[in-house]
Records
---
Amino acid sequence: MNVAALAQLGPADAAFEAVVRPVPRPGPGEFLVKIAACGVCGHDALARRGELAATVGDVLGHEIAGVVVAAGSGDVADWVGRRVALVQRRPCGQCPDCARGATSQCRRGPGFYGDDLPGGYAEYVLADPLNAVRLPDGVADEVAAVASCGIGTGLHALRKARLEAGDVVVITGAGGGVGFNAVRTAKALGLGVIACTGDDAKVASIVEAGADRVLVRPDVAAVRGCARDLDRPRGVDAVIEVTGGPTFATSLRVLRPEGRLVLVGNTVPADLAIAPGLTIVKELQVIGSAHATRADLQEVIDMIDTKRLDPIRPRRLPMSEASTAHAALDERTATGRTVLVP
C-alpha cells in the first residue's frame, strides 16, 4: 500500500515521502479499514517537529474514516462492508480506566495512531470495535474523519465544563481545527459563545460558525465587555482553552466565581501561570481534557446525522500533499480542518 511516511523531523517542507508498505493483516478481534479520508491535526504537527514520540519512518494521522474490507478471527465479521469513523486511541476495554469509561487514559491497549501505531496517512489501517463507530449514509467521509478529534475533542471539553443551555463560554484558538468546530458544537448545545482568535482574516468564518462575539487577540477588558453584553456581568461560565500558554492568564481572569477553565491544548509549550490567589479567592477550577472517547464520537455522529450539528466540510487534499497541509497548519492560514485522501 502507498503511505506518506515521515522523511525527516522538522519543517513541513519535504517532511514526508511516498513509500510502499505491506497491507497490514487483521489479527483476532481486529479488522482492516480502507481509508477514505484522514484529517491533519496539530498533534501531527507536533509529532513531525519532533516534540512527541514519532520518529523518521513513522506514519502519522489519527483522524480516520473509511470502510471495513477484511476481518480477523473472532466476532467481527459483521463489520465487513461497513463505513466507519475511528477514535485515535485503541483501548484494551478491560483495564480499570476502560471500565469507568475513561478510555482516553488506557495504557494497556494497542496505542495511539501516529505515535504507537501506523496511522492514517496511508491506504489502510487496523482498527477494532472498541475504537470504531458505524457511519450513517448521510455523513460524508471527510466530515466523519474529523468527527472524533476535530469535533469530538471540543464536545468532550464542553462536557467537562458542565455547561447547560444558556451558559456563556469563551473558546480560544477559534480559527484552528478544534476551536473552530467547538464554536459550532457549543452553539448546537445552546450556549452563548465568545470566540477568540489571533487572525483578523478568520473573523468572518468564525462568525459564520455561530459565535456570538469574535475577538482578535483580546485583553481581559475586551472579553469581560462581551460577557456583560451576554448577561454575564461577573464573568463567563467557562473557558475552553485551546491555545494554552499565550491566552491562559487572560482566560483565568475572565471567569465568574466558581467558573471552569478546561485546558485542551498548549500550542506554544510553556509553564502556565495558575495565579493561585485568584484561583483560591474565586474558587476557580482548572480541568484537563484529553481527546474524544468512542462515546463522544458516537454522540457527534448522531448529532450530525440528525442535523443538530452542521459541521463545515474540511478542505480535501491528496495524500501526496501532506507537506502542504502541514505548512498551512504551521502558518495558521487554514480555518478548520484539512483531510488527506489516498
Note: The chain has a mean pLDDT of 94.
---
Amino acid sequence: MTATTKGQTGAPDRTLLTIGQLARRSGVPVRTIRFWSDEGLLPETDRSPAGYRRYDAAAVARLDLVRTLRELGLGLDDVREVLLRRRRVGEVAAAHVRAIDERIRALRVQRAVCTLLARDGAEPTPRELRLMNDLARLSAEARQRMIDDFVTETFAGTDPEAPGAGIASAMRTMPAELPEEPTAEQVEAWVELADLVSDPAFRARAREMAVAGSEAAAPPPYDPALVLEHAGAALREGVDPASPEAAAVLERIGVDEAADRAGLAAMVDTFSDRRVERYWTLLGRLNGWPERPPTVPAFEWFAAALRATR
C-alpha cells in the first residue's frame, strides 16, 4: 500500500513508495534498488515504523537518472560524482565515450585474432598463441609502447642526423600501429612483428645497423638505385657473382677497379639484413602500404660479387 505523510492541515503533501512499489514502477529489481541505496546513490526518503524503506517522487526521478547512467555503462563512482554535482553529465559522458571507443577497438582486435585462429591451415605454435593472446589483451597504447621501446633501445645514443642514419630516422618516425579494424592478415603481421622486436638477436642486429649508420661520415660510395637495377637483374638472370659477367655488372654499378672491394662488401653486409627488411614489410602491411619486392637479395649478390672479383 502507498503510504502518505500529512502536513499541518492534515492534507497529504507527498506520496511515499515502498521499495517494492518503486521496483514495479521503475522496472528496476528490488535487489538493485537496495544495493544502490546502500551505496548512497539512492537514499531512502524515510523508513516506516516497521523499518521499511520508503521513497518520494524526487527519489523516483533520481532512480531514473541512476538507471540511465548505469545502462550507459558508467561506474558507480562516476554516477556518484554526477549526483553530487561534482562533475557534469556531459563531462562524464565524454570520458565514457572514450572508454567505449577503446573497448570497441579491443573487441575488433579480439575478433581479428579469432578469425585468424579459425582459418584453415597450420596450427599456430605455442609462441604464436601466446603472442596472439597478448595482442588481444593489450591496449592500443601498450601495443604501441612495445614498438616504441624497441626503437628507443635500438637507437639510444645514436645521431639521427648522421649521413647513414636513415634507418634510425625512419624507424623513429614510422612506428607500427595496429589498424582500428584489423584484418586477420594484419593481425598475423602484427604477431610476427611483435615476435621480431622482442627477439634479442634481432634487436642486436638492428642496433648494429643503427650505430654503423650513426657513425658513418658520408653516404655509401655506391648508388643503391644502380645496385637494385643491375645487381637485381643479374640475380634474376642467375649470373654467378664470381663470373666475368659479374665484373661487368659491378662496372655498370660504378665500382672503381681500385676500390677496397672487401671493405665495401663488409659495408653492404652491415646494412643488408633480411629480417630488418621483413620488419619494413610487416610495417607496410599494417599500414596498408603497397607491397614492395625484397631488395636485400640484390645487395647480397652485390656483396658476393665484390668479394669474388677483387
Note: The longest helix spans residues 89-118.
---
Amino acid sequence: MRTRPGTTGLRGTAGLRGWGGVGAMGLACALAGSLVLVLPDRSGGGAADREGPGTTVAAPARADADDCNDRSLRPSSKDGPTIERIRNREVKKLIVGVDQNSYRWGYRDPNKKGGELEGFDIDLAREIAEEIFGDRDAVVFRAIPTNERIPAIQSGQVDMVVRTMTVNCERLKDVDFSTGYFETGQQVLAPKKSGITGYDPSLTGKKICSASGSIAEDELKKKNYSADISTTVPNQLDCLVRLQLGEVDAVVTDSALAAGQAAQDPTVELKGEEPFTTEHYGVAMKKGSDDLVRRVNKVLDDYREDGGWQKSYDKWLKEGLGKSSGPPAPEYRD
C-alpha cells in the first residue's frame, strides 16, 4: 500500500471510535436534516465583505492537473485591501464556511455540552483568525453544503471556505486557493459484507452516491464501471444516510472523510487498498484576494513549522488514519 504525505494507513479506520451502530444512523439522519442550514450570525454584522479585486492561482492538487498553473501565491505578512476591509467592517470577525457534519474535520460532538464546532478544519480556521485579528475566537462559522461552497465565496457570504475542499483546475476558474494543507484521494465506502472490492468492475450494476459538485461526482462521470451514478446529494454525509437506509450500494468520497464515516458506522468500510486519485485540500477564497491568499499561506507555513499542524492531526485524525509523515510540501509561484 502506498503511503501518502498526509497519512499512513488510510484503511486503518477500525481504531477510530465514533458514535457507532444503530445510534450512528439516527445521528446521521438528524445531521442530514441540518446540512443546508446557515448558522446564525452570532456577530450581528450580517454577510461578509462582498468586494474583491483580482488574480491568482493555487496549490498543488490532483495528479491530472498538470495542464494549469495550480501553484499558490508566495506567503506574505503584508496587509492589503481584502484584509483591510475584513478588519474595518462592522463585523470584527473572520467569516468562514465550514462543515458541521464531517466527523473529526468539522462537526458538533453530541456527547459534549455546548455543541461547539471542532475538528481539524476548525483548528485551521482559528489559526487564520488569530493571524488576522489576534484572537482565535474572532471567527464566525457558517455551515455550507458541499455544492454551495463556491457560491458562498462568490456572493460574499463568507470570507473563505475551510471545508475539506480539493484544489483543482476547474475550481481555480471561480475561486482562489491557498497552497495544499492535506493530501487525500477518492475511495469507495461500502458495507463490510458487500461484494464491492474498490473502484473497479465490482461496481458494475451497483447504485453509487456522491455529493453534487464534488470531485467524486466528476470522477464517476469519467469512469463508473457501468454503475448507476444518478444519486447525488447536496452534502456528502447524505450519502452515508442513503447507504445506511439501503438506497445505494456504495459511496465515493474523499478517503479522509470516508474514514470518519466508517468510524461512525462500524458496518461500513473503505474498499480498495488505496485512493484512486491524489488530491490536496486548500483554503478557498474570492478571486483576486491576493493579500488574503498570501496571508493564509503564511499561516500554513507557520502551522507546518511550529508543530501546530501535527498537533491538530494527532488530536483529530491519527487514531483513524494512522501515523502521519506530515503535511504536503507547499508549492508556490515564482
Note: The first strand starts at residue 94 and ends at 98.
---
Amino acid sequence: MINDEITKQAPLNSGFGPQTTAAEALGGRDLSGKIAIVTGGYSGLGLETSRVLAEAGATVIVPVRTLEKARASLAGIPRIEMEILDLLDPASIDAFAQRFLDSGRPLHILINSAGIMAPPLVRDARGYESQLATNHLGHFQLVARLWPALQQAGAARVVAVSSRGHHRSGVDFEDPNYERREYEKWNGYGQSKTANVLFAVELDKRGKKHGVRAFSLHPGSILTDLARNLSDAELRSMGALDDAGQPISAELTTHMKTVQQGAATSIWCATNQQLEGKGGVYCEDCDIAEIVPVDSEKKEGVRSWAIDSQFAEQLWKLSENLTGVNFAI
C-alpha cells in the first residue's frame, strides 16, 4: 500500500545522535539479497558506507574512475563489484546504467555520495560548472537511467548526500553555471548542495507511488579527501587542523566526526526501518532535521529554500534541460 502522506520535516527523536556509527545506524537490519550502488564508494565516507552495507549482506556496486585505486581501497570487503563511471561524462553515465540494467537485477538502494567541494572554476565538456555538474546533474542523469531497476525493486531508497553547505546558497535558476555572474567557490558548493536536497524532495514526490523514496542529508564535519582543494589556512578556520597543521582528532572535539560516525546518516536513510513509509526530507545525526529560518545563525537544520516544493519542481525541469534527459515519472 502506497503512503501518500507528506513526511513532516521535523525530528523523529530517533534515539540516535552525532556519535552514532554507520553500523549502529543499520538498526540490526539484515540486507541479504539487497542490491546497492554507492557513488564515491571507494574513499572517505563512501568507502565506510559501502563496507557497512556489504557486511550487512548487501551486494554493493561501486562506480569507479580509477580501478587500481578502488581495488586497493575495497580489498577484503565481501560482495563488492566495481564498474567504470565518470559523473562528468554523460556517455559514461549512460553506459554504466545500461550495464546494470542489462544484468536484470533490481536496485534497492542508491546512495549518491560522490562529490567535489570548493574547486577553482572548472567547466565540463558541456560548459557546465563542475560542482553543479558532478554533485547534482551527473547524479540526476544516473537516477533517471537507473529508474527501471529502482522501480523493479518494489521498495527502493535513493539517498542524496548533501551538506550543511546548502546554507550558503540557493539555486540561481537564471545563471546556474556562472556564465554571467562572478564565480565564488563556496557559493557554487552551496548551490550544488541545495540542488541535492531539492532533488530528493521532487524525486520522492514523483517516486513514492512506485515504491521509491528519497532522502537527503548532512553527514557531519569529517576531514576526508573531499577537502583536497582547501588550503591549510581554510582547514584551520574550519576547525579541522590545529595550529601546527595537524588534523584535529574527532574524539577531542564536538564539531568533528569520525568516518564511522560520518557515514551513519547515509546508512540510516538508506536502511533503517524508522523511515519506512517516509521520504522527501533532509536528515542529520541519524534523524530528520528541523527547518531553520534563513536569518538563523544555527549551524544545524535545513534552510527553507532547499525544501521548497516549487523550487524542487523548477530544478527538475532545469536538470532535464541541462542534461537532455527526459525523466518523466
Note: The chain has a mean pLDDT of 91.
